[in-house]
């Protein structure tokens, strides 16, 4: 009897060991991919940021240059402006669209698709369509302004308007994603809370501020954190909207240049990889700092 039990135990242990080995073998490939594509390039860029442009060794000249670089600080300011302008507005439009579509009884799926399509469309294609719309001579934007007898605007050629023009396109593209996530958050709120509030005579505006908005806190945190990180890493929209014939982007006069654009120009136009790596490290620190502040400020306890 004991021999039979021991045999069954050994067989069970063998089966468990085999399953464990199979599980680890499946995890090995994505782990190696993550190490090769994420971890190693990150560490290599960090080490390269302490290297001189010509030669080898350890130096802080890239960071010293970074502190006194006016174009870098302009790109930092522009990056923060992208965050401040785009993230709150696209979230506000997203929640308005979500609340409006929730009240629609027919063709709700159609409106979801219409507002979500810009988010899943190629950023390059969308950027070039907007670039054509912003064209000062033949673009639709100035044509539309002429209907109201407003003079043409230099959407992407005027330094005072270029950043706003890029931000408008970013907001238009991301608001559908915010709408979809907010709709999922609204589905998670128990309907009994609204029924109890109606019995107590609460208005719709009061129900929104007292029930909907507080209980959407996890959704708001998710969209705020992901939206800020995306805005801090803005590249494709600026590159395709503002790239000149020479390949430089971020114009006019660096008015739309973000940290990623400046890093790209330093690396692939100026061929200064060490300095571009220093900009990358600065961007990483900024993203980490802003994300930690967001989680600290926005996170709060809630219960349904």
Give the DSSP E fraction (strand runs of 2 or more residues). under 5%
* SSE sequence, one letter per element: HHHHHHHHHHHHH
Structural class: mainly alpha
Query: CATH class of the largest domain, please?
Result: Mainly Alpha
Using the 3D structure, state the CATH architecture of the largest domain: Orthogonal Bundle
The pLDDT mean sits at 85
Instruction: Quickly count the helices.
Output: 13
What is the fold-level CATH name, i.e. the topology of the largest domain? MetI-like fold
Q: What is the helix fraction of residues, given as a range?
A: over 70%
Please describe the biggest sheet, giving its number of strands, its sense, and whether it closes into a barrel. none
- Spatial separation of the terminal alpha carbons: 55 Å
Membrane topology: Multi-pass membrane protein
Main location: membrane
Subcellular location: Cell membrane
InterPro entries: ABC_transporter_permease, MetI-like, MetI-like_sf
Please describe what this structure looks like:
The mean pLDDT is 85. By secondary structure, the chain is an all-alpha fold. Helix 1 packs across helix 13 (273-298), helix 4 (108-120) crosses helix 7 (162-187) and helix 12 (259-269) packs antiparallel against helix 13. It contains 13 helices and no strands. The protein has two domains: 1-48; 68-298, MetI-like fold, CATH 1.10.3720. The chain has helices at residues 2-48, 61-67, 70-102, 108-120, 123-133, 140-147, 162-187, 191-199, 204-215, 217-232, 236-242, 259-269, 273-298.
């Amino acid at each position: 009897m004991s021999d039979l039990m021991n045999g069954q135990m050994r067989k069970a242990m063998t089966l468990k060991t085999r399953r464990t080995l199979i599980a680890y073998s499946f995890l090995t490939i994505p782990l190696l991919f993550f190490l090769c594509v994420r971890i190693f390039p990150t560490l290599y860029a960090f080490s390269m940021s302490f290297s001189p442009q010509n030669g080898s060794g350890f130096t802080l000249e890239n960071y010293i240059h970074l502190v006194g670089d006016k174009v870098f600080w302009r790109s930092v300011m522009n990056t923060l402006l992208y965050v401040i302008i785009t993230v709150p507005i696209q979230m506000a439009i997203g929640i308005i669209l979500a609340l409006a579509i929730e009240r629609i009884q027919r063709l709700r799926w159609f409106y979801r698709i219409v507002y979500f399509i810009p988010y899943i469309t190629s950023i390059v294609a969308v950027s070039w369509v907007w670039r054509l719309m912003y064209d000062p001579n033949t673009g639709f934007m100035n044509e539309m302004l002429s209907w109201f007898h407003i003079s043409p605007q230099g959407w992407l050629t005027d330094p005072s308007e270029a950043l706003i023009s890029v931000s408008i396109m970013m907001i238009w593209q991301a608001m559908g994603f915010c709408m979809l996530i907010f709709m999922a958050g609204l589905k998670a709120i128990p309907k009994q809370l609204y029924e109890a509030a109606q019995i107590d005579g609460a208005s719709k505006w009061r129900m929104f501020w007292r029930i909907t908005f507080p209980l959407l806190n996890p959704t708001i945190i998710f969209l705020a954190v992901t939206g800020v990180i995306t805005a801090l890493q803005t590249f494709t929209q600026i590159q395709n909207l503002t790239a000149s014939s020479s390949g430089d982007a971020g114009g006019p006069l660096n008015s739309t240049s973000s940290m990623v654009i400046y890093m790209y120009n330093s690396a692939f136009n100026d061929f200064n990889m060490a300095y571009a790596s220093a900009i990358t490290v600065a961007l990483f620190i900024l993203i980490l700092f802003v994300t930690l502040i967001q989680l600290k400020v926005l996170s709060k306890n809630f219960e349904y």
